[in-house]
Design goal:
The protein contains two helices and four strands; from the N terminus they run ααββββ. The protein is an alpha+beta fold. Strands 1-4 form a two-stranded antiparallel ribbon. A two-stranded antiparallel sheet has the order 2-3. The longest helix has 70 residues. It is rod-shaped, with a radius of gyration of 27 Å. It starts with a helix and ends with a strand.
């Protein structure tokens, strides 16, 4: 009789611990998912802020270029200004791309350490007279 009682208590203890461990894991998974979503949201907010600033800078570059082109009559000067405009715009886009890729990579790495999958979600962005692809983060799941 005592053996059965001890056996039942042992079985109850094992089942309780097993169920409690799953509940803890489920809570941990939910916490990790919440943390991953917050990381992605924060990074994406930063990325969209940077995109907005790059668009504003691109618009200023383009506006200044177009105003300059209205007043220039010399073809060589026009070609030089066009080259300068393209160089400045290329640099602006390169900085935007590098910055957003770095933010995305860092965030995806942090999210993966939480046991959650994330990926790049490419979006089209207009910078002056160019369309570029920028990479916010999207949380996929476990």
């Amino acid at each position: 009789m005592m053996k059965k009682l001890v056996g039942m208590m042992f079985l109850s203890l094992v089942l309780t611990l097993a169920a409690g461990g799953n509940v803890f894991a489920a809570d941990n998974e939910a916490e990790n998912m919440d943390a991953a979503l917050k990381l992605a949201d924060t990074t994406n907010s930063n990325i969209y802020f940077i995109i907005e600033k790059a668009q504003e800078a691109g618009d200023v570059l383009q506006e200044n270029y177009l105003q300059d082109m209205e007043t220039i009559e010399d073809e060589e000067e026009a070609a030089a200004r066009t080259a300068k405009y393209n160089q400045d715009l290329d640099l602006l886009i390169a900085v935007l791309d590098y910055t957003t890729r770095t933010l995305t990579y860092t965030t995806i790495t942090a999210i993966e350490k939480l046991g959650v999958e994330a990926e790049v979600e490419w979006v089209e962005v207009q910078i002056a007279d160019r369309t570029v692809m920028i990479d916010p983060v999207r949380v996929v799941g476990f």
